[in-house]
Protein 1
Amino acid sequence: MIVRFKNPHPSVGGPVEILPEEISKVLRILDGMTKTTDFALGALAYSAPDEYWLSLDTTFNVIRLLHCDTDYPDEQISVWKLIEFEEVKE
């Protein structure tokens, strides 16, 4: 499916944990780009630290990033809505 990416995370605000800078750079590049969701997931996975997980949400048309910090007593989970997408009609 070909999509157009839009509304990337502003990289400030949100959860307690700061969005990794490597991810922010990829989001700025993807913004406005027309590609497949697999392309975006691959680019984000390449730049994400190993302990982070990506999630493709096709109900709300967003890509999310999840991180479970085991240093916290309750294993705090941070979730970011990284970027939205909309299908491009060919």
Protein 2
Amino acid sequence: MGRLIEASPSQLHDPEERAKARLAAIARADVLYGGARALVIAREVREGKHSDSVAGDAAKEIQKHLDGYECDAIVSSVYTSSTDDGIRYTAYECPECGTVCLGREAALLHCSLTLED
């Protein structure tokens, strides 16, 4: 088995998974580089706003597939985790076949589940 490689959220096929991974990536960038863009997006989704803020385009895309509670849970998970709990919402390639999956565990189990089907 190869090593786990992080993938771009845009490589996920499911639009809901793609929205989750994109929001988590924004939240992780906030933690690493400072900022609160993910928090602004979550607030805009929760309030149903589509402002012209920096988060406007991302909020529109994410709001199509997630509700405010999901956004809050993702942002909170990434912001508050010192052990990188956000890996549940990060896109990874399956180490065996390269299929992009949402979450580390899903990527590690992808081919083992496929082989059993």
